[in-house]
Amino acid sequence: MTKKTYATVTGKLSTQIAIASFVIGTLVFLLHHLFPQEDIIFILGFFYVLTALFVNGVVVLNLIHHFIFFQNHREYFGVKILIVLANIPIAALFFYLTIHHINLLNF
After folding, report:
1. Domain limits of the chain?
2. Which of 37, 40, 86, 104 is least enclosed by beta carbons within 10 angstroms?
């Protein structure tokens, strides 16, 4: 596998992981708000956030490594880093809404 092929595959995988993290996190968030009395959903969400934080952290570190060492592809990896980091404000919003038990229909 050439360096360019490896870089492309790494970038695609990071985007897929970021999208999967967003979709799964959103589903857990919606499940919790549809069934607020089910403590298992809250516990599942907590462990999901810990797992997603670890996985996305490893992905970001890998992308930073590629950003540093693949100098001809810095823009590509910079965009991939931003895509993965975009989940942070979304997760913070979901956390805020969950902790404060805001009714989503009253926005």
Report:
1. 3-102
2. 37
